[in-house]
Structure formats: C-alpha cells, structure tokens
Amino acid sequence: MVNGTCNNLYMVNSSGYNMVSYTPDSRSSEYDMLCSTDIVIPDYAFQMKLNVSNIFGDPVVRTARSVYRPTSVELNVIASSDDVPIGNERVVTYEVTNTGANIDSYIVQISDDHSYVLAPDSMNHTLGPGEKTEGNFTLLPNSTIGLFKYTVAVFVNSSAEVKQTISRTLIVTDIQRPNCNVLMTSGECNVPSLNTANCSKYAWSAKAEVTFKGTQLESPVAVNISGNCCNPSLSISAVDVDGYISQCHFELSNGLPVQSVEPIIEQVIHPILNTNIFSKTFAVIVAVSVCFVVLCIVIFAGVITYKYFGQTKRMKEKHVNSKTHAQNRTRKEVENKT
Q: Measured between alpha carbons, how far is 308 from 78 in angstroms, rounded to an integer?
C-alpha cells in the first residue's frame, strides 16, 4: 500500500482480543509502506494486527499469520560461513542463555539434510537465571559436493517444546582453502576480571595454526596472540588470494561481557598535624616557662629583700642600743645639767 497511513499496531492474544495497542512509525517508498514500532514481549503467545488507512481514507486491517511465543532461552550459533572442503570436519559452536527467572534444563540438538552430523547430536544444559554456556557439534561432509543445510534447535527439557531454531547453509567443495585451528589458550577471564577497573591486570595468550593446502603455502603458519581481559574474545581470519576466509575464534570469558565501572584510585592518607594545637601547646609551654622564671625572680628578690631589711633592722637595733647605753646617766647629773 503506497501513500497510506499507519494508524495502530495491536498485539492480539490467541483468542483474538487486542491486548496492547501501539502507535507505529510509517515510512513509504515508491512501491510499499512500512509500519514499525518497538514492543515489549509479553508472557503469552501473540500475533500482530495492523490497522492502516489507504489513500482514500478507508480503513484496512491485516493480521500477521505468524504466532509469536515468549521463551526463557536464547540460542546463538557461532560458525563461519565459508566453504567446507569435502572430507574435512567443521565445528559448529553455539551459545545458550537462560533469560528466564528460574533454573531450567535445556536440550540443544543439531540436524542436517545429508546426515553429516557426527555423534553426539544433542547436548543437555542446566542453567540458572542469566547464566550462559556454550557447546559444539561436528559436521563431516564426505559424500556430495554442493549445498547442505543444518539446523540447531533448543528445547525446554520440562516440556520438550522447541523454543528456538537457527539454520545455516554451507557449500561442500573439493578445493582445499585456508583452515584455522586453535591449538592452545592460556589464562581465563573470570567474573572478577571482567570490569574496566582492573581487566588490564589479567593477561592471556593463545596459539593457532593456519594451513593453506592446495597452494604454495603447504607448511602450517603459526599464529601467536596475547592480550588481557579488557578484550576477552576475538577472532583471527586467514584469507587466501581468491578471497576465501577461515576463522579462529578465541573466547576467554565464556561469553560474559566486560562491565564498565569507575576506576578505583588508591589513596594514601597522611596524618595532618594540627598547627593550632601545636601553637597552643607551644604557647602554654612558653607561658609556663615565663611564669616559672618570673616566680624564681620574685622568690630571689624576696630573699634578697628579706636579707637586706633584716640586716638593716639589726643595725638599727644595734645603734639604738648603743645610744641608750651612752645616755644611761644618773638623775642628779641630769638635773644639774638642766
């Protein structure tokens, strides 16, 4: 529908009732119109119903045939998409994450349309809320050159219900292209190392081997790589002259990301001398010292004064005594003199 208008986008349950209504954004091109919006996945199966108006203003309602069912598990397949040389094994790695709120058990199963899967073709995992794990399967195309398709599915063990499937298509060829194999990894990036504050303190190293059979580079090429837990996963690619690619994937943290946190700054606290207390103490000491000196001077002056006045008093008494002695005459002599 061209030049129409997106009115509403409804989330409809299995009984056909409109549960949630959204106002979508619309984009038109020369040939069609796109209505889109962000939705929140509910805990029930649902379909999407669209209400639009055509260029004449007439309402048009359409319901998508697909039924969406919420799941508590997330599946991710990690595998290169380059050609598979006939007679060579191909490892398919997957990740399973429990996105629910409870501990649950899951079965991951792989199948293909040419029976190239080597046993075991299913794996069991028990995961807590938010936990993630990975596993792998091996494919060995050994009969037919051409396309083949494989599918990885995850079941909830309690209900045996398929929750998610992922399919990939590969080409089997008789041309040997680059092949990359991980030989060794040293070091791990556990939870304590997966933050930006100290991830650089945890180092790891790895070694891979790349071969280019069918070319002039017949001998293996050794690849040594090292890093720290600020980059806990990476891939290296080997490319030949025709553009064919082979990859080696290194995963040191079991799929866990590096968390961004504030850096921790080590602080050294030095004791701060209280200059006021020091000054007051010094002033008190000086005051006490001055008082002591003054007291000593007063005492010394008192002693000197005491001795001085004592000596003066004795001299006066002596002088008085001498005068008294000199004037001790008879009464008759005094009267005659008068």
A: 114
Report the residue count for the chain.
Answer: 338
Per-domain boundaries in the chain: 5-63, 72-175, 176-261
Can you tell me the distance from the alpha carbon of 227 to that of 204, in angstroms, rounded to the nearest whole number? 6
pTM value?
0.44
The pLDDT of residue 196 is: 86
pLDDT value of residue 127: 92
Question: Is CATH 2.60.40.10 the classification given to domain 72-175?
Answer: yes
Read off the pLDDT of residues 83-107 as tens digits, 9 standing for 90 and up. Answer: 787 888 888 999 999 988 888 899 9
Percent of the chain residues topping a pLDDT of 90: 17
Cα 126 to chain centroid, rounded: 25
Whole-angstrom Cα distance, residue 182 to residue 80?
Answer: 14
Q: Residue 267 has which token pair?
A: 């602080």
Residues 6+ apart with CB under 8 A from 193: 199, 201, 202, 229
- Closest alpha carbon to 118 in 134, 136, 140, 91: 140
- CA atoms of 204 and 196, how far apart (whole Å): 16
DSSP state of 117: B
Q: CA separation (Å) from 122 to 108, 137, 177, 319? A: 5, 8, 29, 138
The residue with greater pLDDT, 70 or 293, is 70
For 129-139, letters b (16+ CB in 10 Å) and e give eebbbbbebeb
What b/e readout covers 322-334, taking b as 16+ CB neighbours within 10 angstroms? eeeeeeeeeeeee
Beta bridge partners of 97: 74, 132
Label residues 67-77 b or e (16+ Cβ within 10 Å = b). eeeebbbebeb
Express each pLDDT in 1-45 by its tens digit. 567 788 899 999 888 889 999 988 888 777 777 888 888 888 788
